[in-house]
Design a protein that fits this description.
Distance between the termini of chain A: 35 Å
Order of helices and strands of chain B: HHHHHHHHHHHH
Shape of chain B: flat
Largest interface: A-B, 25 and 17 residues
Structural class of chain A: alpha/beta
CATH architecture of chain B: Orthogonal Bundle
Radius of gyration of chain A: 18 Å
Strand content of chain A: 15-25%
Strand order of the largest sheet of chain A: 6-7-8-3-9-10
CATH topology of chain B: MetI-like fold
CATH superfamily of chain B: MetI-like
Number of strands of chain B: 0
Number of helices of chain A: 9
CATH class of chain B: Mainly Alpha
Helix content of chain B: over 70%
Radius of gyration of chain B: 27 Å
Order of helices and strands of chain A: EEEHEEHEHHHEHEHEEHH
Largest sheet of chain B: none
Oligomer: heterodimer
Shape of chain A: globular
Number of helices of chain B: 12
Number of strands of chain A: 10
């Protein structure tokens, strides 16, 4: 296998509808890969397959050379290594920001609250949420909620982070603060896969951009090449619509 | 745009003189209150004066609204009602716990636990399908009738069991609907963090589900408070039976009216409170 995370011939059906039609993708350690494409092209489903929230119907997903999509494998320990952040934040509304972040490390790693507090407080500080730890999700803005969701996923110390259009539900003036967090993670060398509509951001930071259409990766390459000189007609058409 | 202008106008004018529109609306409100008051008073007076003129009113009054009998029996009824409250007080927590357990049984997914799931389904089907009074008769008369020694033949034990069996089936269904109401994205988010199914249920789904179904469960517990009176059929002298004793003693129905008033004194505020909670929740959702 060539990557930290490698997909080989991944297929996924929802009923009669084939959403992933044999996807091959390699994500190297420390790399940032952006998935672009129209709504319904299969970006979100692909991400959900990568951390086994959706079981794939055929193909293989290798994490450090081990096939994690093997049917019958316990998904829990694998999900701990692959964090995901969703478009709609999905914070637990009955818990404070701090409790949201601490739940999984407490239950899964068995850490105590007091043991976790300094590390978690430092993460809140780092992402500009130092004074928001005891707020409930509905007391936070969309951008703040999304940053808490990112901290929640990072607190499990995953090896790979998946981001599913995490700025799509945000007001335009809040997008920047969430993208800054991603820039920060990029600098830290986190391995990341993003489904995104932020073309400027993808162009600026991605190592590789994949254009998905109708469940296939139609074209992939470094951002400069894909954005400036796309080979496929349909990539051109898509880019001319969104740029 | 226009609404925001009107809004700003209203805010700034609140400190100063009322606007034309505010004057008009205040006038309309005053007029509406006046009409409602006059209409209510006229209907009230009509009932007050006309009903006693109806033929047979005196007999009705003597039999149902007898002041002397009411005064003589009311303290005894209140005392008997304490027994209802006690039966309610120990049944309610048992019902809540059993209901939750049954709801969780129905939600198990592991094949080894399939019998539990089947049991949960059968349980809710059976006990929601039976009249409460029938279950009370079967268990309340039937089990002590097996010749159990004291204190195991107490109607309190078996009457309570009957109430717990029936009501926990309803509570289980309500809790299950609460579990179903939690959006699957919450489960996904929890699963993506590597939490086990058990922890997802315990820390993420159930706390939200139970909060959502508090008002619906309150309505069930109000119904339970009323159904405690059914235990009178198997022995305990609670308010309904006590009222029956007084009725025979005084050959008068006023004690039943007194009992009704005591029930209402508890159930009306409780239903109002449940409605308030329900409305609050609906508002929070929209």
């Amino acid at each position: 296998m060539t990557g930290k995370l490698s997909l080989r011939g991944v297929r996924k059906w929802f009923g009669e509808n084939e959403v992933c039609k044999g996807i091959d993708l390699d994500v190297a350690d420390g790399e940032m890969v952006c998935l672009i494409g129209a709504s319904g092209s299969g970006k979100s489903t692909l991400l959900r397959c990568m951390n086994l929230l959706e079981p794939i119907d055929d193909g293989a997903i290798f994490l450090d050379g081990v096939d994690i999509a093997e049917p019958g494998l316990d998904p829990q320990p694998i999900r701990q290594k692959i964090g995901i952040v969703f478009q709609s934040y999905n914070l637990f509304p009955h818990m404070t920001a701090l409790e949201n972040v601490m739940l999984a490390p407490r239950r899964v790693h068995g850490h105590g609250r007091e043991e976790l507090r300094p590390k978690v407080a430092q993460m809140f500080e780092r992402f500009g949420l130092g004074d928001r730890t005891d707020h409930y999700p509905d007391q936070l803005s969309g951008g703040q909620q999304q940053r808490v969701a990112i901290i929640r996923a990072l607190a499990m110390e995953p090896q790979i982070m998946l981001f599913d259009e995490i700025t799509s539900a945000l007001d335009p003036e809040l997008v920047g603060e969430v993208l800054d967090v991603l820039r920060d993670l990029r600098k830290q060398g986190m391995t990341m896969v993003l489904a995104t509509h932020e073309m400027g951001f993808a162009r600026e930071l991605a190592d590789k951009v994949c254009f998905l259409e109708a469940g296939r990766i139609l074209e992939q390459g470094p951002p400069d090449q894909l954005f400036s000189a796309p080979r496929e007609e349909r990539t051109k058409a898509f880019l001319s619509r969104v740029l | 745009m226009t609404t925001s202008k009107v809004g700003n106008g209203a805010v700034s004018s609140r400190a100063k003189a009322p606007t034309r529109r505010e004057l008009y609306e205040a006038n309309v409100r005053r007029r509406a209150t006046r009409i409602a008051l006059i209409s209510t008073i006229s209907v009230g007076l009509a009932i007050f004066f006309l009903v006693p003129l109806a033929p047979g009113w005196e007999a009705v009054q003597r039999s149902f609204f007898n002041g002397r009998v009411f005064a003589a029996t009311f303290p005894g009824l209140v005392e008997a009602f304490l027994l209802n409250v006690m039966i309610f007080a120990w049944s309610a927590p048992l019902i809540a716990v059993t209901g939750l357990a049954i709801a969780l049984c129905r939600d198990t997914r592991a094949p080894a636990l399939f019998p539990l799931r089947l049991f949960g389904m059968a349980y809710t089907d059976v006990f929601r399908g039976l009249p409460v009074v029938l279950v009370i008769y079967i268990i309340g008369f039937g089990v002590p009738g097996l010749g159990l020694p004291r204190p195991w033949n107490s109607p309190y034990i078996w009457g309570t069991l009957a109430l717990v069996l029936v009501y926990s089936a309803y509570v289980a269904e309500v809790i299950r609907s609460g579990i179903d109401s939690i959006h699957h994205s919450q489960r996904s988010a929890a699963a993506s963090l590597g939490l086990s199914d058990r922890d997802i249920m315990r820390f993420v789904v159930l706390p939200q589900a139970i909060r959502n179904v508090v008002p619906a469960n309150m309505n069930l517990f109000i119904a339970l408070q009323k159904d405690v009176a059914l235990l009178s059929f198997i022995g305990p002298v609670e308010i309904f039976r006590q009222a029956g004793v007084y009725k025979s003693l005084y050959a008068n129905f006023t004690p039943y009216v007194g009992a009704a008033l005591i029930f209402l004194a508890l159930t009306i505020p409780a239903t109002r409170y449940a409605d308030y909670l329900m409305n609050k929740q609906n508002r929070a959702r929209t």
